[in-house]
């Protein structure tokens, strides 16, 4: 087997062993060498002791999805040894710690034993150092086996421990220990290896949560209230970290409030209060938090208070799989709260869009005077992705929407907090302190008339609900449009996806085209759906809807809200908690197409026989 810049390395470790830092060092070093990398951290929901894996796909092409299969397995966890051995492709490589003997029930793979534990025991007296440097040693061995640029790796170590100079040399020495052993005992490089390219300045590595946090900073957010929950916690943590340097006034005072609340209910309540007072405010959570926030989401929808909620979805229901990815909060968020509610949802497809759409969410929220929910997921939020640089136009002006100042209140007609003055169903609002007597405090979460006065007149309440429906139609014209990628002008087969599945679906479409199946693809970026969604559906006879949940939630929305005939939409569902692979998408769609052909052929034979 000979593979250059086209293979998968997987590390099997024990959670809490310090392996994550070494594995990320490996991935970032390859990225700095100009290679395409797709890292995926597959970790358990406990602090330490359970199995954890880290997978890195190395690719020349601009691919961003898991490939499936393992070419080089670094098996460091005896608990999962048999399982890890089974994942290696034929003629692939097993790297293991030969300090203790291990069985090799496969004869179709190559086995490379390195006495890592023994080497570290001889080199280090401190038990913790022995554990931590084991991970660095196997990365050092890989630098020789894969022909990696060792200068790049050493610089990555220096950058990793910037400000902790005393840790740099010990880590480099541990790298050399593994590297020298590999050179001495194995033929280096392996047939599976890298060929360094030119580092691309138009690419960065970043997580979706970090990018979303930066989107909040650049959008002008000054209030964040949150309660810790995997996998959204790092959104708030990154926001606070960046705000310390970027939310400082000329006198050096911080112009931001970050509050860790006692629970999700308190967090969203604080955000609504801050937003009503005129601050740009947000919270971040995951599925269980969304469930708890439901009543307050209904309050903000009905009282028309704008704020942003970042939902980093995980496996459910209940506690579910806290450290696995899914797209299973779609209908929950679209209709969150009791009564007739509909919320604006945005679906970023990579960290760059996490930055852009989160920033846009604040403008949309204030323009529409409603909550806007950014629908990320664990794969997108917590894994490092390669994407384009985050860009910001310094001339951009935040859209605060229809906000009346004191002069407008004095000059205009009597203020109607919930009146449809312009015919777009979006009312005007005021901020507290704007005027001593007119409108500053008017808002109401119970049934109200256009002046925000309480009413139990059912007809008045129905008129208000109708206006909110019209406002949702206005939102459909303002949200980001779907992205359409055509492979054939004449193809009647289509595919719809959204969010982090875009990487796998895009590559799967290329594989399907190579096999003779041409599909036009549409990636949804928002709900409510724009006109382009119905237009795409009308142009195709059969459309595959790819989503990571059991109940085909997006398909249901497309039928209910876009009016697409159910018989056109074929669900392609994955909900095992793992990021999609292009191969899986390709197999599912190809099998469905061939099944349709078989049915059609059988029907023709049946007709002829009659």
Outline the structure in words:
With 610 residues, the protein is of the alpha/beta class. The chain folds into 4 domains: 3-193, Pyruvate-ferredoxin Oxidoreductase, domain 3 (3-Layer(aba) Sandwich), CATH 3.40.920; 206-387, Rossmann fold; 406-478, no CATH class; 483-602, 3-Layer(aba) Sandwich (Rossmann fold). 40% of the residues lie in helices and 19% in strands. Strand 3 and strand 4 form a beta hairpin. Helix 7 (208-218) crosses helix 8, helix 7 packs parallel to helix 12 (351-368) and helix 16 packs across helix 19. The longest helix has 28 residues, at 582-609. The model has no long low-confidence stretch (mean pLDDT 95).
């Amino acid at each position: 087997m000979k593979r250059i810049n086209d293979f998968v390395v997987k590390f099997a470790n024990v959670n809490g062993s310090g392996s994550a830092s070494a594995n990320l060092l490996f991935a970032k070093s390859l990225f700095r060498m100009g290679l395409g990398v797709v890292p995926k951290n597959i970790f358990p929901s406990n602090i330490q002791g359970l199995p954890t894996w880290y997978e890195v796909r190395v690719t020349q092409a601009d691919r961003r999805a898991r490939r499936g299969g393992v070419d080089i397995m670094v098996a460091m966890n005896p608990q999962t040894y048999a399982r890890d051995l089974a994942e290696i492709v034929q003629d692939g490589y097993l790297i293991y710690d030969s300090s203790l003997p291990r069985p090799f029930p496969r004869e179709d793979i190559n086995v490379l034993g390195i006495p890592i534990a023994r080497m570290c025991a001889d080199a280090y007296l401190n038990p913790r150092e022995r554990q931590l440097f084991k991970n660095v040693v196997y990365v050092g061995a890989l630098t020789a086996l894969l022909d990696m640029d060792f200068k790049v790796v050493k610089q990555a170590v220096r950058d990793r421990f910037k400000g902790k100079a005393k840790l740099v040399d010990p880590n480099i020495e541990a790298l050399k220990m593994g590297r020298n052993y590999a050179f001495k005992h194995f033929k280096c490089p392996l047939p599976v290896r890298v060929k360094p390219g030119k580092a691309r300045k138009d690419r960065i590595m970043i997580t979706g949560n970090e990018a979303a946090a930066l989107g909040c900073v650049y959008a002008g957010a000054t209030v964040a209230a949150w309660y810790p929950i995997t996998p959204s916690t790092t959104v708030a943590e990154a926001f606070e970290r960046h705000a310390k340097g970027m939310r400082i006034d000329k006198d050096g005072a911080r112009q931001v409030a970050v509050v860790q609340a006692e629970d999700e209910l308190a967090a969203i309540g604080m955000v609504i209060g801050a937003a009503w007072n005129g601050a740009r405010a947000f919270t971040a959570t995951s599925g269980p938090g969304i469930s708890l926030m439901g009543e307050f989401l209904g309050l903000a929808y009905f009282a028309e208070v704008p704020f942003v909620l970042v939902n980093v979805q995980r496996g459910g229901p209940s506690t579910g799989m806290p450290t696995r990815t899914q797209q299973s909060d779609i209908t929950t968020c679209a209709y969150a709260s009791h009564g007739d509610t509909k919320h604006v949802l945005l679906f970023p497809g990579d960290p760059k869009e996490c930055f852009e759409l989160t920033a846009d969410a604040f403008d949309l929220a204030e323009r529409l005077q409603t909550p806007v929910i950014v629908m990320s997921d664990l794969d997108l939020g917590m894994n490092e992705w390669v994407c384009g640089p985050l860009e910001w136009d310094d001339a951009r002006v935040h859209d605060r929407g229809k906000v009346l100042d004191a002069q407008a209140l004095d000059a205009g007609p009597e203020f109607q907090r919930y009146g449809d003055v312009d015919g777009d169903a979006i009312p005007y609002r005021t901020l507290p302190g704007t005027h001593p007597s007119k409108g500053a405090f008017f808002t109401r979460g119970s049934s109200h008339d256009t002046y925000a006065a309480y009413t139990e007149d059912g007809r008045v309440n129905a008129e208000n609900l109708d206006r909110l429906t019209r406002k949702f139609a206005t939102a459909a014209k303002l949200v980001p449009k779907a992205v359409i990628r055509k492979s054939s002008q004449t193809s009647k087969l289509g595919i719809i996806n959204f969010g982090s599945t875009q990487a796998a679906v895009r590559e799967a479409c290329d594989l399907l085209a190579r096999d003779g199946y041409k599909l036009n693809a549409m990636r949804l970026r928002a709900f409510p759906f724009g006109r382009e969604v119905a237009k795409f559906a009308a142009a195709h006879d059969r459309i595959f809807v790819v989503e990571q949940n059991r109940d085909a939630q997006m398909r249901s929305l497309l039928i209910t809200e876009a009016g697409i005939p159910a018989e056109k939409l074929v669900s392609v569902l994955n909900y095992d908690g793992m990021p999609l692979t292009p191969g899986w998408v390709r197999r599912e769609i190809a099998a469905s197409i061939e099944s349709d052909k078989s049915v059609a052929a059988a029907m023709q034979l049946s007709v002829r026989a009659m």
